[in-house]
Structures are given as structure tokens and as C-alpha cells.
Write a structure and sequence with these properties.
Layout: H1 2-8, H2 11-26, H3 31-67, H4 69-80
Helix pairs in contact: 3-4
Length: about 100
């Protein structure tokens, strides 16, 4: 019993425990902050992957638009609703909430 009491009243053990508690909860870079930063880093990495894929798709589309006139015409018709003088343009939209 005396031996346990001696161990738990050791100034080194008490200092070490106090230091660990301080570093875990009260320091500027505490554990909750580090966990939040890791979550944010993972979100940013995922966003970077998505943006890289989007950039690659846009580059491919840009190359197609520069080299192929049919693709350019299709793009202008679909995106900017352009039409020829002797055509009528009908826009059909679907309400996703009505389809069940």
C-alpha cells in the first residue's frame, strides 16, 4: 500500500500527467483541433481529386471544340440554345418531383 502511495505521489509522475493533460486539452494545438484539421484535410483532398477530374474533362472538351466543328455546333446548340434561322426550338424539361 505504501509503495502505491509513493508511486502516485511521485513529483515526476504528477508532472508528467499534468503535462499530458495540458498538451491534450489546453494547448494551442490540442487533440480536438488536430482531429478537425485532419477532417478538413481529407475534405480538401477529396475536393482536389474532384477538381482535377473536372479540369481534365474540361480540357478534353476544349480540345474537341477547337478541332471538331460539329462538336462546336452541338455545344452551342445545347448550352446556349442557339438555332438556325429556319428552325424552331422546343425546350423540354422534366420535373423530377413528379416522376415517382
Amino acid at each position: 500500500m505504501k509503495q502505491f502511495r509513493r508511486i502516485f505521489t511521485s513529483k515526476y509522475l504528477i508532472t508528467g500527467i499534468a503535462f499530458a493533460i495540458w498538451m491534450m486539452f489546453f494547448d494551442r494545438n490540442d487533440i480536438p483541433l488536430q482531429l478537425n484539421r485532419m477532417r478538413e484535410l481529407n475534405k480538401l483532398r477529396q475536393s482536389e481529386k474532384n477538381m482535377t477530374l473536372l479540369i481534365n474533362d474540361t480540357r478534353k472538351e476544349s480540345e474537341l471544340l477547337k478541332t471538331n466543328p460539329e462538336t462546336l455546333e452541338k455545344y452551342a446548340r445545347e448550352r446556349y440554345l442557339m438555332k438556325k434561322d429556319n428552325e424552331d426550338l422546343y425546350i423540354v424539361t422534366f420535373d423530377s418531383s413528379a416522376i415517382k
